[in-house]
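Below is how a single chain appears once it has passed through the pipeline. First comes the sequence as given, then the structure the pipeline wrote out for it. We keep one example in the README because the format questions we get most often are answered faster by looking than by reading.
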Amino acid sequence: MKRLVLFLSLTLTLTACFDDIKTDKDQNSYVNRWIYEYMSSVYYWNKEMPSYKASYDNPATYFSTLINSEDRFSAIYESYQEISDRLNGITNSEVGFEFQLFRENANNNKVVGVVLYLKPGTPAATLGINRGDFFTKINGTELNMNNYSDLIACFYDATTEVTVTFVEYSEGVIVNQKPFTIVKANHYTENPIYLDTIYTMQYKKIGYIVYNFFTADPGDETKCYDLKLNNIMAEFNQENITDLVVDLRYNSGGMMSSAINLASMLVPDLSSEKVFNFTEYNQNYTDYFNSAAFKNKYDYNPFVDNFTTTIDVKSPSAQTYPLQNVGGKLQQIYFLIGRNTASASEMVINGLKPFINCVLIGDTTVGKNVGSILINDEENKKNQWAIMPIILKYFNYDHQSDFTNGFVPHYRIRDNFAYPLGDTRDALLSKAIEQITGIQQIAPHSKRIPEAKVPITGSGLYFMQRGLILNNKNIP
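Resulting structure:
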């Protein structure tokens, strides 16, 4: 992966020392000025930002005043360390399952949660909670449209346990309630590769992988997750798979480097000369990347990402591994997608479309054809705020980037949570197998909430939706 140089052409200079700030108002003023300096330099829509004015507003409120009307994804976080950890799959206080929230029906204000999958190694995974289980209360309080955000915060706060009341429905009526007191996992590290397996059906060998977010490692530069993905592809090659299903239905994005690695494993006729991605920046970046100063110092093209043939590891020692590619075995790739599929997931699909038929099964994706970077205040460590502004727009080899409304599936299938991920009766997976083998699978039983059709939000709504980032550890 190319390295992104963070070129700053700052027009303002911070004169106050953070240690000298005595009041919350002065602290807000400092943070807001810091935010403006970075945004005015790196933000994709920086030329359309308002002129700088000193502000004592809460930084999150101030940040919102700088955001372009086209921008759905730039974000600000009160704790840099927490968001940095989360992007690497690390959660200080983890309830132990991913979820979605639904409005119970149009006639009341009630909200219902549904478990998408359990996280291995957490106490919750040992309690008998299953994918598709519904919950309606947290710490004894019923979820509704007014309080769900505050209640879900209990899943992530510093408390050591939380009580979640699960329910069973029968013909639209709750017939059973079962509260679970869940001990939260402390400093939990989630592996993004949730599941991989091979199915043998009708003379077909079908590789299947569930990949839930893009990150190379838990922040230790070992590339352990990229290498595990590489080993899975090596096994798929050894087993001579004939078809591949990549499950990205809950994958909201992550590191671009891992996206390039995955795409390189899937593209036919892999070559490091083949273009995966073109990148467009604001004028600040564009001018600098075109300058003699940049070209004399760096030997890569910031406007182009090629597919890669190696995985380069820094820790515990520098080493290069050949990248495993299964694309040469495949006529098409089946992607399972949904309303959480975004950013780096969409980048992989978009980047592969010029080279191989991508069959999309599930629901329409988010439509994030832009990328962001996580920025913190390295000069003043007491300023814990972090921003993740959009800094680029990406295009595939055919210069296509026209999916702001999301990728529409070829086969629209509702994710009904009826069976565990990897069970061939799962609604999305069974459709992929049907397309591969030509044999219709048993129609899956629906566990969906009566009348509930549209989720309020994606999984993990309270903290963040993982977005495409160029992690700032890649910035020189």
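Residues 1-15, 457-476 have pLDDT under 50 and may be disordered.

See the next section for the split statistics.
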